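Subject: Sanity check before I submit

Could someone independently write out the structure tokens for this chain? I want to compare against mine line by line before I put it in a report. The sequence has 400 residues.
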Amino acid sequence: MGGVEVTQVYRAMRALMSAVLVLLWGIPAQAATLHVGPGLSLRSPSEAARVAQAGDVVLIEPGLYAGDTAVWTQKRLRIASAGGPVVLEAAGRHAEGKAIWVMRGGEFEVEGIEFRGARVPHGNGAGIRFESGRLVIRNCVFRDNENGILTSNDRQAELYVVDSEFADAPRDSRALHHLLYAGSIAELKVSGSRFHNGYNGHLLKSRAARSDLRFNLLVDGPTGKASYEAEFPNGGHVVMIGNVIGESAASGNAHLVSYGIEGAVWPENALLVSHNTFFSKAKTRTEGAFVRLADRNRFPAPIALHLINNLNVLPGQALQGEATETSGNVFVVAGALGDIDALDFGLASGSALRGAVGPAPTVGTTALAPAFEFVLPRGTRPLPLPGKWVPGAFQTPSGR
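---
Independent answer below. Compare away.
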């Protein structure tokens, strides 16, 4: 049976069931679990996208799905691997000239899927183009896309990314390729995720009203050539807790984190930076800063900047701009940490810095003390309350 026939059959069956249930009992049809894979009635994710209804679960069998693109518009949907690697390879195809998947208008959960090789004529192809609603990403990989995830500017949209990986920006100059780019949406939250091997664009860029980054690894790596590791060009309320943020030797930008450089858009503007580890592989650090704050000419709105218990690896300067509150920020040489090249960023168990800082405070309703730590290859582990606090992203000692 062909794909079009399968779609028609599924639609007819679901429509008939819904009509019968509504007519007899006044209730809609129950949600279904749709199984996708070679040899099944639904052979590809795009076929499932055409027949799935609100509340359904789509489970995709492991395998490579080349050239299969889709648009998802259901009001509520969970899409996940059935167990094992699921790879969506664009292979020159795209949905609506935008992405491998376009998602809009609903509450979506996507888990355990790799998006690879997105290219579109305008140079801004995405693994996922998220346009409206709420999207939760768990344990996914975005590799070799012009943008990993690219959102719209819908001010009600919410994007949450958990335990995922963004890597390998294309090596071309057609456009700036950001590994994750959130537009002027309501909220972006990212935790337990790894960003590396950028090129010209940023590892992460957010114009959201609220951006919350916790326990991530934004480390470009030896072959990376990203610009900023994290940029918030229009400010907003930004929380950064327990991240490792590292610049490669070939970075095209002197700064790691930039805030407000394109001016204020949102009514609330604050930057809360606590227990992060900053380092740069650039040979000279005479011009840049780990955190760059826009001056008053560019960003006249008041900015509440709190820098608390961060670990700054020399060479480098911690801040370009003026902070509201600073405490517990420490400079060390790279040798005080584990093996940075092996992604070991903990301090030695006998480090003199253990107990050198106090517990991070609460600012407003945001507790700045870390509750988790990043773990490789991606994810987090709970952090028991330390007897002695140390600055930086890891309370756990170096493994060496």
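---
OP: Matches mine. For the report I'm noting this point. The mean pLDDT is 93.
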